[in-house]
Amino acid sequence: MDWMLAFLAAYLIGSIPFGLLLAKAAGKGDIREIGSGNIGATNVLRTGNKGLAAATLLLDLAKGLAAVMIARHLWPDALGLAALAAIVGHCFPVWLGFRGGKGVATFAGVCFGLLWPLGAVYAALWLAVLGLSRISSLGGMSAAVSAPIAAAVLGRMDLAPWLAAIAALVLFLHRANIRRLAAGEEPKVGSKA
Predict the structure, then answer these.
(1) Are 108 and 126 within 8 A, CB to CB?
(2) pLDDT tens series, the chain, 193 aa
(3) What is the spatial distance between Cα 4 and Cα 173, in angstroms, rounded to a whole number?
(4) What is the largest CA-CA distance in the chain?
(5) Quick check: 97 and 24 in contact, CB under 8 A?
(6) Taking a C-beta distance cutoff of 8 angstroms, is the pair 142, 129 a contact?
(7) What are the extents of the domains in the chain?
């Protein structure tokens, strides 16, 4: 029962579509009708409102953190499942016909909630790759892949399988980005897509 409650609570927290809600509140319309159609911060940035994109990123991160912290206090044995459920909620929210974001910012929050040094590694790699390449998807995927490795290095092998499953989901959701990267056609942040 604890595992079911942990999954459901984390899923529902993760499924809050902050990008969509903020864009609509700011008069930018339905974020799913512009750019990639995604509800994440990168697509919100395509509205031209950097503050809105930053708020989306922080709130998506916060919901991952909140889901894990709540599970830590109520269902500590289901911590890994709650982490996965928060990402599944963000990527497949029931409110939006199971079409959500790609999980990168929410994964950062999950990592900080599980173990702050893990979150620090995730954030540092994400920002470093993004800063060097100016390619949002590359930064996000690099950070996602680093999470299970960092958990193992930090001595948390119990978390590594859960984080590997999340990383695999993030990579799967970026499959179109991977094809564009391979073809040299992935847009850089700030460029006209």
Answers:
(1) yes
(2) 789 999 999 999 999 999 999 988 988 888 888 877 788 888 888 887 889 889 999 999 999 999 999 999 999 999 999 999 999 999 999 999 999 999 999 999 999 999 999 999 999 999 999 999 999 899 999 999 999 999 999 999 999 999 999 999 999 999 999 999 999 988 887 665 4
(3) 25
(4) 49
(5) no
(6) yes
(7) 2-183
Spatial distance between the Cα atoms of 9 and 83, rounded to a whole number of angstroms: 11
Best CA proximity match to 118, nearest among 144, 92, 137: 144
What is the reported pTM? 0.92
Q: Taken in order 177, 63, 155, 1, is the CA torsion positive or negative? A: negative
Secondary structure element (H or E) that encloses residue 74, with its range: helix 50-74
Rounded CA separation 55/90 (Å):
16
**In 3D, which of 70, 65, 68, 42 has the Cα closest to residue 126?**
42
Separation between Cα atoms, residue 120 and residue 139, nearest integer Å: 14
Distance of CA 141 to the CA centre of its chain: 10
Q: 85 near 120, Cβ under 8 Å? A: no
Q: Which residue has the tokens 């995604």?
A: 38
Angle between helices 104-114 and 79-91 (to 10 degrees): 160
- Rounded to an integer, what distance in angstroms lies between the CA atom of residue 98 and that of residue 100? 6
Tokens found for residue 143: 């950070």
For the record, the structure tokens of 65 come out as 């953190």
